[in-house]
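mind reviewing both lines:
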Amino acid sequence: MKNCPQCHANLADDAMFCTNCGIQLNAAPRPQQQPPKPPQSQQFQMPPQPGQQPGQPPVPSVPVNEYDHTAEFSEKEVHDNKIFALSIYALSFIGIIIALLAKSSDNSAYLRFHIKQMLMILISEVMTGFVSAVLCWTCIVPVAGTGLLLFLYVTQIICFINVCRNKSVEPLLVRKLTFLK
């Protein structure tokens, strides 16, 4: 019996490798290598985040989508008002009126969120249609207005799908509009 020169485990006399640490026994023991540390002048340390002790590794932060309001509404509130939220996007102005009349006593934050989003879409559609109609004698404005109206209709469909998936996300173009906030 012989001992491993690195970990001192008992080995057979004819063993070529240590069964414990894997070192080759006929060769000289390998020193364990550590990665070289950069000089202190090149080493950069981040200041600790709030609530973090100095010397602890930083806690990875989860990116937060400021336009996603799904977590603000309870599951029960979403379940109770989902049909009205769907009608808002499916029926446009009539859907808004139905949602306001049907749930006027409920005062649901979930329903108010979707009513505001659809009102911003509707106001954008009306403004785009008005500007296109007034400037119809030009060539580019009606074409651009038609493109914007198509984009707003697609946004309305995306909002409908998000409500089906129990998501409350501000639409892409509408989130930049600051009225009704």
